[in-house]
Amino acid sequence: MYEIDVPFEEEVVDITTDITERQEFRDKYNPTGQVPILVDGEFTVWESVAIARYVNEKFDGAGNWFGRGTQERAQINQFLQWYAYTLRLGGGAFHWNIFGCLIYGEKPYSPKFTAEQNKGRTLLYEAMGTLENYWLRDREYVCGDEVSYADLAAFHEFVSHEAGKIIPDRVWQGFPKIAAWFKKLSERPHAKTVSEWQYTNVGKMIRGELTASMFKRKTAVLKGTEVFSGHNHGIPYLNEKAEDYFKRVEKEGAAVA
Amino acid sequence: MYEIDVPFEEEVVDITTDITERQEFRDKYNPTGQVPILVDGEFTVWESVAIARYVNEKFDGAGNWFGRGTQERAQINQFLQWYAYTLRLGGGAFHWNIFGCLIYGEKPYSPKFTAEQNKGRTLLYEAMGTLENYWLRDREYVCGDEVSYADLAAFHEFVSHEAGKIIPDRVWQGFPKIAAWFKKLSERPHAKTVSEWQYTNVGKMIRGELTASMFKRKTAVLKGTEVFSGHNHGIPYLNEKAEDYFKRVEKEGAAVA
């Protein structure tokens, strides 16, 4: 919205609290309880990529954001799908080193979550390999020589890792194209504004100024990336065995799923 | 392509073999080695959703497939994003009960993968809860009263579970809207054609006619859904510890990521 000059009112949903876990929030805005969410008069849309497509279409954003022709659009769509199954899930490296630790009452980098941290980091490094060797192989931006929404999505992913100091310097050095691209995107006029909350709050978490006892939320913010004790963290039944959850669903159906 | 009458030549890529793991395949078609892939003259596009958008746009598919107006399109986009992080990852239930077992030399339903099976099933049941209670709450199809591409994507996901008998009858009974919707989509003219390979081959796997020793592939087909021994299966370094992989990336960079 900043990039294409669409005026909006911002409301920060503090995801360290339980606000997005409450049923009233889910009924009113988003059944999954995830953010971001756009409310445009009577119409509500969630999922960042869907929001961006909606805003760009409604407010006639320039062609570079989602592509000027069929093939360019296909490239950007292809990137956004690839991203969902790779780079986005690599966010588990950040989540299980910083955010998830605090949710579950531990300090950042808790060894309790080594398996999840390893999985997240593996997905992250793999995704970085494809980004360096394929998407950025011979061009300035991930889908061509102009910036597109695909860059903004991917950039935002690296902001978490940067804020949480997840990627060591010696790894950045092995991925020079990503490093140059990230720097270029960091220098865009609105980059700081949209990533300020992350840098500020993640900084507090790392320095121990924001501790587990200050976290009211009890579930993960990054579904699909994590297993812990054989049970997914994205669900509200944290202390229930998977097998018991399955039995409840078998007996009571959609109401408890 | 069947639905909007676009002529094409089909080439089945047998994913029980190692064909998609070979570098020449990756260089020529898709760096991730995943299918489906569309080759349209000089232009190649992969990722099913990106392919569908491309074909629908290029061949002027009817408005129902990706939406007739801004809000309808936003709904379909929202569904396709939701789907990527939930229902699609619930495919781990199928993968780790059937396909993954054979890849890693075990019989279907191997108890070796209980944690992965549980995670997949948890994600699947959760996603089914949202599908039943939200997407299909008061309408015929997932994004409205007309069929859209969102239905085709979600339908195809359930085909794997149906072919692999992953969802027990008593669970189907608890999700009556999904069951009715699945039946309706199964009865579309082309449903059988596009799911034939799955039904035939998964049937052979369950009956023990297609065994682990017949599988040439060594890596998962469903990235991001699984952890095993703290190491992701989607990568080619199957017998390497995560920590050793990280050290290699730190030392050698993108070339080994």
UniProtKB/TrEMBL annotation, chains A, B:
CDD domains: GST_C_Theta
Cytoplasm among keywords: yes
GO molecular-function terms, A-Z: glutathione transferase activity
Keywords: Cytoplasm
Transmembrane segments: none
Similarity comment: family membership: Belongs to the GST superfamily.
Name of this chain's protein: Dichloromethane dehalogenase
Originating species: Ancylobacter dichloromethanicus
Lineage, top ranks: Bacteria, Pseudomonadati, Pseudomonadota, Alphaproteobacteria, Hyphomicrobiales
